[in-house]
Model the fold of this input.
Amino acid sequence: MRLATYNVEWFSSLFDDDGRLINDGSWSSRWNVTKAQQIAGLGHVFGALNADAVMIIEAPDTSPHRNSVTALEHFAAHFDLRARAAITGFTNETQQEIALLYDPDVLSAAHDPQSAPDAPRFDRALQLDVDTDAHPDPIRWSKPPLEVALRTASGEDLRLIGVHAKSKAPHGARDAAEATRISIQNRRKQLAQCIWLRRRVSAHLAAGDDLIVMGDFNDGPGLDEYEKLFGRSGIEIVLGEGEELPMFDPHARLALGRKIGAMPTTARFKRKGQPFLQALLDYVMVSPQLREMQPEWQIWHPFDHPACYADVALRTALLDASDHFPVVLDIDL
Done:
């Protein structure tokens, strides 16, 4: 079985209010890429993936006049994708939903949010003291994680949690001091979200559930200088570093194990007048039982993955489609 997570930059901009593709030469929300180019690129990538299920980060918007499921299912039909059924969870106000696109012939999927006293539903607030002033702060997700109960055609049950964690970038800062303040504030929120998520993960692992946590964490070991201030990254928190039941992702493990040297990357951002910035932001973490099945991970990076680089059409499609690249898990379920 093939599962993947894929952050599609401004997927919503490619659809009209009826969920139909705007397949023309107008500019997309990606730099120097038309809607037709991005749509063609995405169709090529999704077709090449041929995944049983894809956790889509920044999926099309759901609002009073738009529907993410409708848009994704129109997209799947347009390209005759095997993964053609979609579900979403709690919607948000950012025009960037989290959705699962899956093959209904081999999987059934349902949004199945959980709740516990120390980890409420992800559409609610968690009281947590993030600034060590002895007063709990209400922590909320701008994009609540998608909790999925998945069942295979053979009757195997699996839990998925799709994640788009808080960005730490100091958007809106007017000077260096304000940028520092916003960055620290955002990292506190991102770490708090990861603590909340880890509590949910720990409950599933204690119950013996097979679990995969996948998505864009906007974080990684050594990604910014504020990590030293807080001691560890959000990724280490969700993985459960040092805990009895840790999650596992080989790319995170590689990054955590070195200070310098080669590092896997899942995203490539353009900067005006500067070289591209690459980062490891997207992960597929598996529970201990699933790790024992010896799954295989791949990052479909157009320059780092040999097969993606050798296939010129796929390489171009990956570059046109998004500033993130799919992370793929092949596992025998």
User: Anything to note?
Assistant: The chain has a mean pLDDT of 92. The first strand starts at residue 2 and ends at 7. The chain has one domain: 2-330. Residues 2-330 form a domain with the Deoxyribonuclease I; Chain A fold (CATH 3.60.10.10).
